[in-house]
Amino acid sequence: MFEEDLTLFFEKDELADEIVIRKSGEIIVGMIENDYVDIDSISGSNPVLVCATSDLYGLRRGDIIEHGSIAYVFIKDEPDGTGVSRAILEQ
User: Fold this and answer.
1) For residues 74 and 28, is the Cβ–Cβ distance under 8 A?
2) Considering 22, 54, 62, 67, which has the largest number of Cβ atoms within 10 A of its Cβ?
3) Are 55 and 30 a contacting pair, CB within 8 Å?
């Protein structure tokens, strides 16, 4: 596995935000991307959390994470093999 110091990417004062895992109260740092999607006249948002893979350890489908006043349901994580994951969310 690729080992790199990713702390600069996930500093809340720079690019990232604080995300709260509701069941534990743990605060992780990551970036929420909520792109607008329009496929075959069906449109909506596609929320994704980008964070350190290790921060998602213990999360299960259906767990709630919060970014500010918005709650998201954790669906699954997609690790990229570099220590970073995309967590697929639903709002």
Assistant:
1) no
2) 67
3) yes
Q: In this structure, what token pair is assigned to residue 48?
A: 């994704």
pLDDT for position 38: 80
As a residue count, the chain comes to 91
CB of 88 closer than 8 Å to CB of 51:
no
Nearest to 63 by CA among 33, 26, 10, 30: 26
Helix (H, G, I), strand (E, B) or coil at 78: strand
Q: What is the pLDDT of residues 8-66, one digit of tens each?
A: 566 566 667 889 999 999 999 898 988 777 888 887 888 999 998 989 999 999 999 99
Evaluate whether 86 touches 49 at the Cβ level (below 8 Å): yes
Per the structure block, which two tokens stand in for 57?
A: 């350890």
| Residue 7 pLDDT > 60 | no
C-alpha–C-alpha distance, residues 30 and 36, integer Å: 19
pTM: 0.78
